[in-house]
Amino acid sequence: MTDVDLATAQENMVEQQLRTWDVLNERVLEVMQKLPRHAFVPTAFANLAYADMQIPLGNDQVMLEPKVEARLLQALDPQPNERVLEIGTGSGYLTACLSEMAEDVTSIDLYVGFTELASKNLKQQGAENIRLETADAASGWDDGQLYDVIAVTGSLPELHQGFHRSLTEGGRLFLILGQLPIMEAVLITRVSDDQWACESLFDTSAPALVGAPVTRSFAV
């Protein structure tokens, strides 16, 4: 695609995918209009960077559909003074979006190849308020810090509370729960020291977070 074609595809993504899927937060729309998603997409899929589809990244992982990323950002609504934790860095696109909206972002990925790829992509975009780590965070993440926003980009077959206590009071956690064919995106808010509220957002599907705990058997 030419630069003109990419610009048109990006505009169409915002107007035809995001707005029509109830993404109305202007900060989210501005960030996704500004950042070049094609710079984070594997070369083989560059022409599909703004399509309404998941894009394979390798290791059975994907970039989520743009509209799902947008709804995630809208639900979490990171503020300029807030700290973000992301589980599942991938190519770094959503990391970049979060960094544009928040004070700083810590992003964790299981695969060193993704961490290295994201680091390269983010540096090319001039992002500086991001810390990347390679680690297994499927069961939760406790680095002694509290976060205002936590985005888990792989699905969890079962809800667990490994991330709940890493939230500040008033902090928001985005999860995709369940198994194929239909999963549920939810927003969990910490309302007090020992209380959390859960809001159902929309149905979707995403590859499971590698190593996510499962305590019961599922029928095939």
Automatic annotation (TrEMBL):
InterPro entries: PCMT, SAM-dependent_MTases_sf
Pfam name, any one: PCMT
Molecular function terms from GO: protein-L-isoaspartate (D-aspartate) O-methyltransferase activity
GO cellular component: cytoplasm
SUPFAM superfamilies per the UniProt record, alphabetical: S-adenosyl-L-methionine-dependent methyltransferases
Top-level lineage group: Bacteria
Membrane-traversing stretches: none
Family the entry assigns: Belongs to the methyltransferase superfamily. L-isoaspartyl/D-aspartyl protein methyltransferase family.
Protein name: Protein-L-isoaspartate O-methyltransferase
